[in-house]
């Protein structure tokens, strides 16, 4: 039985060229980038080249890029670091009820420090409404944090319009673009977002590496102490091999982005077509027209997340759910709960399928056939 990986939104396989690029660094470049001798300078050159590649990918300046251990750290640095550095201007933060927990838990922590947080709702399409952002803005709002693409539904949020709304407001604007970065071209000169968080392992790079874009002039407080690396914003010796891997992964997506998008859309359409051909009862959660190509979140009426995921896994299909599964119980997806309300069956019968490098049209269709068989069997 060939296993089929349909969980690329959770993590993606490392591209072979990324591995090839990292290996010589492990073997030959062990110097500390902060050291002034030749060994350190070799490491520094790799660091500088990677930073240029990262900056160019979003049309930023190299000095606006801070390497982190991944998206979670980047989100935490942007949110907590900005709130603490700007609290004399106010202690009000705006975010949404569908954010990744890297954002939600960060703002919950800030609430314990005396900050006030407004959690914006979303409609059934899974998108935040501009009018809700506007009506929630206050004179003491210092930070707005709204993700670009939701990790459970793939729905694209109106980041351009929100950035335009905030142009003449003191609030900094942070966006987690972890799910968007590999598929959506972004130019920070065109859209005035102040902070962007990216993770390497979602774009076929290594785990444990990411970056935070910090617009020049933004006020932010470091969360780590011990060194002056990353312009004193993130202490700690840089992970040079992983940074090289991130650089390579970015170069690959820059070259292949349109082909990837075309492939993933084809896989999604093929997957749904097989479900249709097998007369599976399902519905897609979220705004179909404003969704990234790589993610589809599907509700299977009458089904249960735990039973589905267990049967999928036994059949060699890797997928996931926003629901937190524990022995004998299911905690509903916070994203789907925000979209449909508490108690709605879709919050506990929905599965996220996400496509990527491990897929081709044949294995996607094979997986859809197995999913169809499982749904029919569990319905009997």
UniProtKB/TrEMBL annotation:
Bilayer-spanning residue ranges: none
Enzyme class, broadest EC rank: transferase
Cofactor or coenzyme needed: pyridoxal 5'-phosphate
Signal peptide range: none
Name listed for the protein in its UniProt record: cysteine desulfurase
Keywords in alphabetical order: Coiled coil, Iron, Iron-sulfur, Metal-binding, Pyridoxal phosphate, Transferase
Domain of life: Bacteria
Keyword Cytoplasm: no
PROSITE patterns: AA_TRANSFER_CLASS_5
Record's catalysed reaction(s): (sulfur carrier)-H + L-cysteine = (sulfur carrier)-SH + L-alanine
Similarity field: Belongs to the class-V pyridoxal-phosphate-dependent aminotransferase family. NifS/IscS subfamily.
Coiled-coil region(s): 243-270
Span of domain Aminotransferase class V: 4-365
InterPro entries tied to this protein: Aminotrans_V_dom, Aminotrans_V_PyrdxlP_BS, Cysteine_dSase, PyrdxlP-dep_Trfase, PyrdxlP-dep_Trfase_major, PyrdxlP-dep_Trfase_small
GO molecular function: cysteine desulfurase activity; iron-sulfur cluster binding; metal ion binding
EC number of this enzyme: 2.8.1.7
Organism: Halobacillus yeomjeoni
SUPFAM superfamilies referenced in this protein's UniProt entry, alphabetically: PLP-dependent transferases
């Amino acid at each position: 039985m060939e296993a089929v990986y349909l969980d690329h939104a959770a993590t993606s396989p490392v591209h072979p060229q990324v591995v090839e690029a990292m290996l010589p660094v492990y073997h030959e470049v062990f110097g500390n980038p902060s050291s002034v001798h030749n060994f350190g300078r070799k490491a520094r050159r790799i660091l500088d080249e990677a930073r240029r590649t990262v900056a160019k990918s979003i049309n930023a300046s190299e000095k606006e890029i801070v390497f982190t251990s991944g998206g979670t750290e980047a989100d935490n640095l942007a949110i907590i670091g900005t709130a603490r550095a700007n609290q004399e201007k106010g202690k009000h933060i705006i975010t949404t009820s569908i954010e990744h927990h890297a954002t939600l838990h960060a703002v919950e922590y800030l609430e314990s420090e005396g900050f006030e947080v407004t959690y914006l709702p979303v409609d059934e399409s899974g998108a935040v409404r501009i009018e809700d952002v506007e009506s929630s803005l206050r004179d003491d709002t210092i930070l707005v944090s709204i993700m670009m693409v939701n990790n459970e539904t793939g729905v694209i949020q109106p980041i351009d319009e929100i950035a335009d709304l905030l142009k003449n407001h003191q609030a900094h604007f942070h966006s987690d673009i972890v799910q968007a970065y590999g598929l959506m071209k972004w130019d920070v000169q065109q859209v005035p977002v102040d902070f962007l968080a990216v993770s390497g392992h979602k774009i076929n790079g290594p785990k444990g590496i990411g970056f935070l874009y910090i617009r020049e002039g933004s006020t932010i407080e470091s969360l780590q102490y011990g060194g002056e690396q990353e312009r004193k914003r993130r202490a700690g010796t840089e992970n040079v091999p992983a940074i090289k891997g991130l650089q390579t992964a970015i170069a690959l997506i820059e070259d292949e982005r349109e082909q990837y998008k075309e492939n993933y859309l084809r896989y999604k359409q093929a997957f749904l077509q097989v479900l249709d051909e097998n007369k599976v009862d399902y519905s897609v959660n979220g705004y179909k027209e404003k969704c990234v190509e790589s993610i589809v979140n599907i509700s299977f009426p009458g089904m249960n997340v735990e039973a589905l995921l267990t049967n999928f896994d036994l059949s060699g299909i890797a997928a996931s759910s926003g629901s937190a599964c524990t022995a004998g119980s299911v905690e509903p997806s916070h994203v789907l709960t925000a979209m449909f309300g508490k108690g709605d069956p879709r919050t506990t019968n929905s599965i996220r399928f996400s496509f990527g490098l491990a897929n081709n049209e044949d294995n996607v269709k094979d997986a859809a056939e197995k999913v169809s068989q499982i749904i029919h069997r569990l319905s009997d």
